[in-house]
Design a protein that fits this description.
- By secondary structure, the chain is of the alpha/beta class.
- The chain has 3 domains: 60 residues, no CATH class; 186 residues, Rossmann fold (3-Layer(aba) Sandwich); 124 residues, Rossmann fold (3-Layer(aba) Sandwich), CATH 3.40.50.720.
- The chain is built from 14 helices and 19 strands.
- Strands 8-7-6-9-10-13-12 form a 7-stranded mixed β-sheet, sandwiched between helices. Strands 16-15-14-17-18-19 form a 6-stranded mixed β-sheet.
- Helix 5 runs parallel beside helix 6.
- The longest helix has 26 residues.
- It binds thymidine-5'-phosphate and zinc ion.
- The site of thymidine-5'-phosphate (TMP) has 13 residues, from helix 13.
Length: 416
């Protein structure tokens, strides 16, 4: 049984205990906890998930921390083989190479390196690469593909020895893993232990402003402990002798920021984009309670609206299936109270998920080929961050009279 190891009492960034709660999802299963089909699921464990905001540094966070070994030791999330993500990874590789003037032979260390897809792009450019990822199953795949990967949680205990045996890194990279980490201070100590004096740190996180503006409540689940603004990240970096030098917004995972930081001792001048984005955050009131409370209110409305729309269509005899089984999708179904009563099946391209049922809603997961044999009237698009790519790919479903329901920022039906 996986445990909640603690309730956060002090903010993991600033150490303050001046929180306010904006929303509670009640007790829900882990979003990635796919199950084997069974006659009943009474033993399925559930965990509270409450969203809180720190009045000191404005970190939005989940109150509960689930045992990271249980969540990440064997991980079913494999970097998506989507056109959008592949293109984005190339842009990140170019951006880092250009920002830091990387040349063949320079060392790149990536935390949360998954199966090594991002590092492979640096290797292609002649850099020497080392990945660190706690998922033993994924590290194995990366190593088998020639991307040296240490199967550990990133921190000074791991990065110090890498620096000693392999040399210091010109670039330390963390894409879409920073938000999963409880002890962010240990991570930054780990960066300090391996980063060359003139090196750069690049971190990519889902962007709080996009999450709030687009009511992406479904991206809030146990794996994602923290939801960062640039302002909060800047506070955290400063505490460890780093400072922001540049930032870009990227449209992956519903809207992310990629930040470039260096040691405070570095002489590079910050780009105008940093001050501009910090300013935009102030304009949106991110250092006040209002936008968080408004987000919580809209979340309640969207949960009601999606649930009502699906129940209504199902009541009229329409056949509905789900498209994509990302963690956020399983969480959305649970929040909206939808189950296999309303949603016949869910299709997903990930073979590891086929033959399983979704946690909480217990909807069976099929391959896209199986789904194509009995196309539903409606697909609820759970992988909404790939909406454009998926709708393009599924032209024939739409032309055959099928429809997509995109659940957020508010539910809308897309016809051909
Ligand atoms: P992600 O948003 O965390 O990358 O997860 C996307 C999920 O959606 C993943 O389980 C794969 C699935 N997916 C499909 O089933 N079909 C698709 O065309 C795409 C792009 C993703
Ligand atoms: Zn704080």
């Amino acid at each position: 049984m996986i445990e909640i190891i603690k309730d956060v009492e002090r903010c993991r960034v600033c150490g303050d205990d001046n929180w306010f709660e904006i929303f509670s999802f009640g007790k829900v299963p882990l979003a990635n906890g796919f199950l084997d089909p069974a006659p009943h699921y009474e033993d399925e464990p559930t965990y509270p998930a409450d969203v809180v905001v720190c009045r000191q540094c404005w970190l939005m966070s989940l109150r509960q921390v689930v045992d990271p070994e249980a969540l990440f030791g064997h991980y079913v999330y494999v970097s998506s083989n989507s056109d959008q993500i592949n293109q984005h990874m190339r842009r990140v590789a170019d951006w880092c190479t250009q920002k830091l003037g990387l040349v063949p032979g320079d060392r790149v260390v990536e935390m949360g390196s998954n199966i090594g897809t991002q590092l492979a792009l640096f290797k292609e450019r002649g850099m020497r690469v080392t990945g660190v990822d706690p998922a033993r199953n994924l590290a194995q795949v990366a190593n088998d593909n020639g991307i040296e990967t240490v199967a550990e949680f990133f921190g000074p205990e791991v990065s110090g020895p890498i620096a000693r045996s392999h040399g210091e890194a010109k670039l330390v990279l963390g894409r879409q893993c920073f938000a999963h980490i409880d002890d962010v201070h240990n991570i930054l100590k780990g960066v300090d232990a391996v980063l060359a004096p003139d090196g750069g740190l690049v971190i990519e996180v889902p962007y709080l402003l996009d999450l709030l503006n687009e009511t992406q409540f479904d991206t809030i689940y146990h794996e994602h402990l923290s939801y960062y603004s640039l302002g909060t990240l800047s506070t955290l970096l400063k505490a460890h002798g780093f400072r922001l030098v540049d930032v870009e917004r990227a449209d992956v995972h519903g809207g992310s920021i990629v930040i470039f930081a260096t040691r405070t001792t570095d002489s590079r001048q910050p780009a105008a984009a940093v001050a501009a984005l910090l300013d935009l955050e102030q304009k949106h009131g991110l250092s006040t309670e209002l936008p968080y409370r408004q987000f919580a209110e809209r979340t309640r409305q969207v949960i009601d609206a999606v649930g009502s729309l699906i129940r209504d269509l199902s009541g009229k005899g329409k056949r509905i299936a789900a498209y994509g089984a990302p963690s956020k999708g399983t969480h959305l179904l649970i929040a909206c109270g939808l189950t296999s009563r309303e949603i016949e099946f869910c299709i997903d391209t990930t073979p590891l998920k086929h033959g399983k049922v979704l946690p909480g809603s217990h909807i069976p997961v099929l391959s896209p080929e199986q789904g194509r044999q009995t196309p539903p009237d409606y697909y609820l698009l759970l992988a909404w961050n790939y909406a454009e790519e998926i709708i393009r790919k599924e032209r024939s479903f739409l032309e055959g009279g099928g429809r997509f329901i995109v659940p957020i920022p508010e539910p809308r039906v897309c016809a051909g």
